[in-house]
Design goal:
The chain is built from eight helices and four strands; from the N terminus they run ααβαααβαβαβα. The longest helix has 20 residues. The mean pLDDT is 94. By secondary structure, the chain is an alpha+beta fold.
């Protein structure tokens, strides 16, 4: 598989088989991802990969936070709350695609919330990686994290794995710090749930479109 094929094959998957990925495959992926470029070679990412019993304990702890009505307290500001124009339209279309596929009506708040909670159940994935960086860092360093995250996802595609990058996994950091050994001076930027895609999961029928090239890229000669 070449890079073009990996880019065209990658999708955000929200339905996983329970089968674990061999430990040596996971280690290989994260080892190669270390080759990702970063500003001044700072390599600002810290990653905690959680599997097995600890993964299950973390899911239970995160869902408990939600059931107790805890409010999100992410370390870095979420900029998707003030979207407008075409960006807001795309966000709405994304959500509508999932709700429609799952047969959830717009006014069915209980069903919508139940689908949302699946974020903190890692959509059933057997593995989850929490990616953090020092809280003293900012948007430029977050660009490095994005490059690193894309490297991980493409390496996973190459090995027949699926993944779901999730900003929501930064919302309730305390259980993650307690169970996944995040450096105390870091803030979680996002998580990445991963494993083998469940081809039978209805939610995986959703396929998001992309804007036409002319909408996002201009060429000047």
């Amino acid at each position: 598989m070449n890079v073009t094929q990996a880019m065209q094959s990658r999708r955000t998957i929200r339905g996983f088989k329970p089968d674990p990925v061999p430990a040596e495959v996971i280690r290989e992926i994260f080892s190669i991802a270390q080759e990702s470029p970063s500003n001044c070679n700072t390599q600002p990412w810290h990653v905690s990969v959680v599997s097995g019993e600890k993964r299950d304990a973390l899911e239970n702890a995160l869902v408990t936070e939600i059931m107790l009505g805890k409010k999100p307290e992410q370390a870095f500001q979420a900029f998707d709350q003030d979207l407008a124009g075409v960006y807001k339209d795309r966000q709405y279309a994304c959500a509508a695609g999932y709700y429609t596929t799952m047969g959830i009506a717009r006014e069915d708040k209980d069903a919508r919330n139940a689908l949302m909670v699946k974020n903190w159940q890692f959509f059933g994935a057997p593995h989850v990686a929490f990616i953090s960086m020092p809280k003293t860092m900012g948007p430029i360093n977050a660009v490095d994290i994005g490059i690193y995250l894309q490297s991980l996802m493409l390496l996973m595609v190459e090995r027949g794995l699926a993944s779901c990058p999730q900003g929501a996994l930064a919302f309730f950091p305390k259980p993650v710090f307690d169970l996944a050994n995040i450096p105390q001076d870091n803030g979680i930027l996002c998580g990445l749930s991963f494993g083998y895609a469940d081809a039978e999961a209805k939610i995986n029928e959703v396929k998001m479109g992309r804007a036409e090239l002319a909408e996002t890229v201009q060429f000047f000669d």
